[in-house]
Amino acid sequence: MKVKSINRRKAENIIFKGTVIFLSLLTVIPLILILFFVAKKGISIIDLNFFFSLPKPVGQEGGGISNAIVGTMILIALTCLLSIPLGILCGVFLAENRKSRLSFWVRLWVEVLQGVPSIVMGIIAYVWIVRPLKGLFSAFAGSVALSIMMLPMVIKATEETVKLVPVALKEASMSLGVPYYKTVLRVILPVSTSGILTGILIGVSRIAGETAPLLFTAFGNQFMNYNIFKPVNALPLMIYRYATSPYKDWQNIAWGASLFLILFILGINFIASGIAKKWKVQF
Amino acid sequence: MNDRIFRAMLYASGAIIFVLIAGIFLTLFISALPSVKALGHSFLFGTRWNPQSVWEGENITLGAVPFLFGTISTSFLSLLISIPFAFSTALLLGEYMKKGFFFAFLKSSVELLSGIPSVIYGFWGFSVVVPIVRAFEIKTGIPPYGVGIMTASLVLAIMIIPYSASIIREVLHLVPTELKEAAYSLGATRYEVIKNVIFPYARSGISAGLLLALGRALGETMAVTMVIGNLNSLPASLTSLHEIHKTIFSPGNTMSSIIALEFNESSGIHLSALIQMGLLLILVTTIINFIGRIYIKKTDKSGKD
């Protein structure tokens, strides 16, 4: 090894540090640009009417995103209903059977599930739900696609949290003669609530912005719809359709919807980190 | 008795995950069969994509090469662009600053960046990045589409930086402190520790992280669809040696973007071919994820003994 002078080594060190800081700062710039741009474009279109009125045909003034907001809420609720119970069960299974062979494979499958591209989820839900119903797009099909995406996040959050629960707690409950299922439901899960809830909220914030799985499942709808077996509109779908339309009015509405969607997602993330910080169970 | 049912339910939940995975692969495979039968190897090697030919009968020309090219070029290019940024962000958060205002600022910014929906990246890219690229193309004498492979790669790069940065940071965290401290105690500078201790130790983990980011980029749909220009053929400049540098600026389509664009209007062999594209996509991303996870586990284990 060549011997370098101490000054040269110090200089290299400083140059490297400078480069790292510079490049990291450059990474933040797109974020600021995106937030600033969306806020600037979106804020001018948003008023109270924007949230409470339906989209209008091209050429008419105004029009809002009420049906997309309702649609997104329906999709989120259905997705939670489908993915949370199974996800929590599976997470408890993985945490309670850490070394069994089945759990090794399940962990692997969960990784695989997490890596599946979102557009493929759309195809799956189309073949499973939409095609048997003779091509009827529906909120239900959309939330099947979304819930397969959310499942790995719920499973992982549950597994990680339940793993942290001390064995002593479980043993104390078992030694009092409490059956295993009651120990899990009344002791282990209640102490893990905050961790699981954080995972669920982060999962919701991820799927709330997904467009690709909804293209051939929820499909979109110009009208208000509360029926889960009919096509619904969703915020990301609406943003995609309106953003790629040639009409200035529609693009402006898409900016407003983008701003609302970003704020909604950031809000959920904010609540999630608040829960994680405040109600963190420490042993 | 109740306990037995409960335990059975726990095991069943694990089994359901398997059924789900098997069902996904099986569904895609079965739905892709008609196109595999009708197209054979012309799907993988054909360079022309003409859905019209399905209706005209006889010679069906549905070749996926333009989309394979689009997917591979955008994902590798975006990975290449993102590496320096992801690496320095991970280093800064994992080595240089472990607390303080700047740490919190950078960390939450990167988290925010990963939370922005793909469709909004696409919309922003369409309104901001496309004009910038177009201006650059006008200056350098390249056909000024604005949209194209380069634009898609730029937007994709921004999207995958948070992902690869967080994995690299995890890997850096696995480097044993004793090793680093030993080097420091011998008088090494921070740069030397990073270069001679941390990097060699974490190399396989870092490449695994980049591989996982590549997998993410391969499957990304909406943002790419909105800025890549949606051209269903190979770039014309690819065939002439003098213009090959223009290739990365020409419009194209990726595997996922063609599915997003044509799925709703397709039927028969066309639909089946699109599903085959999805099958190809899920196979590639699954293999990439597998290899990546195995490498990260290896780094993790060597840290524990």
Mind sketching the topology for me?
The complex is a heterodimer of chains A (283) and B (305).
Chain A: H1 6-43, H2 48-52, H3 66-96, H4 101-115, H5 118-130, H6 139-164, H7 167-175, H8 180-207, H9 235-243, H10 248-278
Helix pairs in contact in A: 1-10, 3-6, 3-8, 3-9, 4-6, 5-6, 6-8, 7-8, 8-10, 9-10
Chain B: H1 2-39, H2 42-45, E1 49-50, H3 52-56, E2 61-62, H4 65-96, H5 101-115, H6 118-140, H7 149-173, H8 177-185, H9 190-219, H10 222-227, H11 255-262, H12 268-304
Antiparallel strand pairs in B: 1-2
Helix pairs in contact in B: 1-12, 4-7, 4-9, 5-7, 6-7, 7-9, 8-9, 9-12, 11-12
What can you tell me about this protein's structure?
The complex is a heterodimer of chains A (283) and B (305). Chain A has helices spanning 6-43, 48-52, 66-96, 101-115, 118-130, 139-164, 167-175, 180-207, 235-243, 248-278. With 283 residues, chain A is mostly helical. Chain A has 2 domains: 2-45; 50-278, MetI-like (MetI-like fold), CATH 1.10.3720. The radius of gyration of chain A is 24 Å and the shape is globular. Chain B is mainly α. Chain B has one domain: MetI-like (MetI-like fold). Chain B is 76% helix and 1% strand. Chain B has helices at 2-39, 42-45, 52-56, 65-96, 101-115, 118-140, 149-173, 177-185, 190-219, 222-227, 255-262, 268-304; strands spanning 49-50, 61-62. In chain B, strands 1-2 form a two-stranded antiparallel sheet. The mean pLDDT of chain B is 90. At the A-B interface, helix 1, helix 3, helix 4, helix 5 and helix 6 of A face helix 1, helix 4, helix 5, helix 6 and helix 7 of B.
